[in-house]
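Batch manifest, entry 17 of 40.
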Amino acid sequence: MNKLLDAAFSLAKMKFENKLSPEEVNIWWAEQAPHLSKDDVLELADWMSLALRVSPEIKETLKDTLMKGDGVAMKTGFELWADEYRGALVLEGERKGKREGEREKALKIAAGMKAEGMDVYTISRLTELTIDEILPL
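Output type: structure tokens
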């Protein structure tokens, strides 16, 4: 059980440190696998799927490749996961950029409204900005 927890926590640390390239995960797996039973491998695969937010299809591919222990298949499984993970990161970055753009636009509009003499409470209601965001404009 300790070896399984050690593996899970070391993967969480890699995620936190943004070291989740397919190469890094392959190295991590090569270090972890020899110390785990087949049951632990399956448990770890389930945990990895949750921690790495993989689709059910990628989860099954990862489980299959982990159980086979075939280095080539494992690399392919980890690359599939990495492609999915990178896509999710790009999508989240796009969403964050859109939110920031919308906020900047709201600030610009609020500044114009304030310059026209509109009260901050009305500006806040119309732009969904807080009064604290509007006052310094």
